[in-house]
UniProtKB/TrEMBL annotation:
GO terms for biological process: regulation of translational fidelity; tRNA processing. InterPro entries: DHBP_synth_RibB-like_a/b_dom, Sua5-like_dom, Sua5/YwlC_C, Sua5_C, T(6)A37_SUA5, TC-AMP_synthase_SUA5. It comes from Baia soyae. SUPFAM superfamilies: YrdC/RibB. Belongs to the SUA5 family. Keywords: ATP-binding, Cytoplasm, Nucleotide-binding, Nucleotidyltransferase, Transferase, tRNA processing. This is Threonylcarbamoyl-AMP synthase.
Amino acid sequence: MQQVITHWWEVDSTDTIEGLKRQPEIIRAAKLLREGGLVAFPTETVYGLGADATSQAAVAQIFEAKGRPSDNPLIVHLGSPEQLAKWVEGVPSVAKICMKHFCPGPLTLVLPHNGQIADNVTAGLDTVAVRFPSHPVAMALLQVADIPVAAPSANRSGKPSPTQAQHVWHDLSGRFHVLLDGGNAGVGIESTVLDITGDVPMLLRPGGITLEQLRDVLGDVEVDPNLHSEKSKPRSPGMKYRHYAPSGEMFLVHGEPLKVVGRVNRMIKEDVRQGKKVGVLTTEERKHYFKQANHVIACGSRSDPESVARGLYDALRTFDQEKIDVIYAETFPECGIYTSVMNRMRKAAEGRMIRV
């Protein structure tokens, strides 16, 4: 694509929403969105690359900038739940319950759209994925722009999502117009996607809101059986294609802790003997076990699952910076936010799992 001048604007994310809406960087970025430009901005999950969701031409720039497949739908971001009715066929009671308990926040709702959203946002589906980010910079930008903004993660397609402004700059500088730097993302992994078009809500993608939290509020919530399928047409972002992956070959190593440590250390020794640079993705509690590896990263503490979610993508990007050839990663129990972490790790490893 043709290179453009990318501006990096810092904003004071500690300001109130009303104060942020008066900051000149927010005003100028909102104007650029209304005029069809591309703006990268922080959300509470990861940084997003936004364009006017009603403009086919504006949204097409997102796919070109990211190198994203056109059949992969985008999430539409709105400044407040009150705006939802303008873009969907109707707002069912389950949507109102979800918005009351989880919005603004890292939950995306899939609903039938009313035809006003650009076709390349929905990938030709009759539904649209909508969410209301809670990051103050995102809220201020969306409220000033006063348009629906389609915004996937602001990274090259398939690579780890950006949780810091410098991640966005590294991946996409020269491919979009403005980067709003509002500090680090808080959750660290993308939003949960919940399809509420059927009789029973269905989880399409685990994320910042856990399945357990949804069931506490909604009762019965099903899990899409195609969640791990690479063949079906995507109903949600993140359901198809290589995602979140570092450049090095990544393996998940699952089993009893001491057996995992022993197996990983044997593989490290053999890989180093062959001249490979080896990385280990682990936690604070176990990082001292892997002294033979070239680079060991603790993405958080096992006793603090949220810290693992926050640190995952930055850890994967660090392995790329260190030019690591092979990465061995410990696994986590499939519950709470760890379910979302494991979903991202399986995709990053392209399903490679070593069981010991």
